[in-house]
Design goal:
- The protein has helices spanning 4-31, 38-68, 73-103, 116-185, 190-207, 216-234, 259-269, 306-327, and strands at 214-215, 238-245, 252-253, 277-286, 289-297, 332-338, 342-350.
- With 358 residues, the chain is an alpha+beta fold.
- The strands form two sheets. A five-stranded mixed sheet has the order 2-4-5-7-6, covered by helices on one side. A two-stranded antiparallel ribbon has the order 1-3.
Length: 358
């Protein structure tokens, strides 16, 4: 099997050969009506083709890159004029020496090199090959450039996603370990349960979040584990409900996309100064669309305490907003309402529109 570089070069040269064969066929077809003998048309173009090829490649790979694209316009103009003159002279010699002597000497006789009309006609025939070739090359380079830009863009977005995820995981574990530390200080029997659930969450963080997507059911399972950890920590003064509708096994979602909203509600809804807190969650899946709604109680003094709200917004919510922009561009709607006694989040997500380039 040929190496990739050799295979690419073969394809590259194949396109060049195909172009000249196509040009030759079109050119001969165009002039076929002017000659009774088609072999004369084929022969004439065979004679003219080498000069056209040399001029075309000189223009595309020497003059344009070195002078036009480098903004050396005076030199480009000078050299293009020189190239045209040399091409016309070469073409006239080829026509006079070969074409008139061997192909259609019975029809025409050699013409003067200084025949302006014929020289202009030769220039037009040379550019009939150079201009389409230049257009095709420009199109190919434009496509390759855009492909390169897209690859760079994707690499940048992937790097940003990895950075956001690297922030999210330590942030989540920091909060959970704080919970565990509090239970250990209280010598609570629930500490062992926390360790077990934390172990499951850590396993998911280490081995499950590198995947492109996971079943929605798995994300829901870890939300339940997280809420159970918080229930152990806060006891009876914390109530939560999670209602799930639809087939959560059939559809997949980017990992750790819903969990930060739950974590944020915990920070907004539970505060040492309140006796009773609650969080309600509804997750609905229908026809590939996910709707996730979550609202929580807010301490009386929070709505008027801007510093508290700012301090508790954390990096998790900002990260998930950015991840939504990267993973589900134009395929999500996020609403966040911070009202007097309720903090409300609504996320609508098209699960089928996970960014395919990421």
């Amino acid at each position: 099997m040929p190496e990739p570089s050799k295979r690419i070069n073969t394809i590259h040269w194949g396109w060049h050969v195909a172009f000249w064969i196509f040009y030759y066929a079109i050119y001969c077809l165009h002039y076929s009506g002017k000659f009774d003998d088609l072999s004369q048309v084929f022969g004439l173009e065979i004679v003219e083709l080498p000069v056209k090829i040399i001029f075309t490649y000189s223009l595309l790979y020497i003059l344009i890159p070195r002078y036009l694209l480098s903004k050396k316009y005076a030199l480009f103009t000078l050299y293009i004029l020189v190239a045209i003159v040399l091409a016309v002279i070469a073409q006239r010699f080829m026509i006079n020496i070969i074409s008139y002597n061997f192909i259609y000497s019975d029809l025409h006789s050699p013409q003067s090199l200084f025949d302006i009309g014929r020289n202009l006609n030769i220039i037009a025939r040379i550019y009939s090959a150079a201009i389409p070739a230049a257009a095709l090359k420009a199109t190919a380079e434009w496509y390759q450039y855009n492909q390169l830009i897209q690859e760079v863009k994707n690499e940048k977005l992937n790097a940003e996603l990895k950075y956001l995820k690297s922030q999210l995981n330590p942030h989540f574990f920091f909060n959970t370990l704080n919970n565990l530390y509090g239970l250990i200080l209280q010598k609570s029997e629930d500490a062992s349960k926390v360790v077990l659930m934390l172990s499951e969450l850590m396993s998911f963080m280490l081995y499950g979040t590198d995947k492109r997507s996971i079943p929605v059911s798995r994300e829901v399972s870890h939300i339940k584990n997280y809420m159970a950890l918080e229930q152990i920590r806060f006891g009876d003064r914390f109530n939560f409900s999670l209602n799930v509708y639809g087939d959560i096994e059939q559809y997949e979602i980017a990992p750790l996309l819903l969990l930060p909203f739950v974590e944020n509600s915990i920070k907004h809804g539970i505060h040492d100064e309140i006796d009773q807190a609650w969080i309600n969650m509804d997750l609905t899946i229908e026809n590939g669309k996910l709707i996730f709604k979550i609202d929580n109680s807010v301490p009386d003094n929070q709505s008027t305490n801007d510093e508290y709200t700012k301090r508790n917004s954390g990096i998790g919510l900002d990260n998930v907003k950015r991840r939504l922009e990267l993973l589900y561009p134009d395929a999500h709607q996020l609403k966040i309402l911070d009202q007097e006694n309720v903090f409300f989040v609504s996320l609508k997500l098209n699960l089928d529109q996970l960014n395919k380039d990421m």
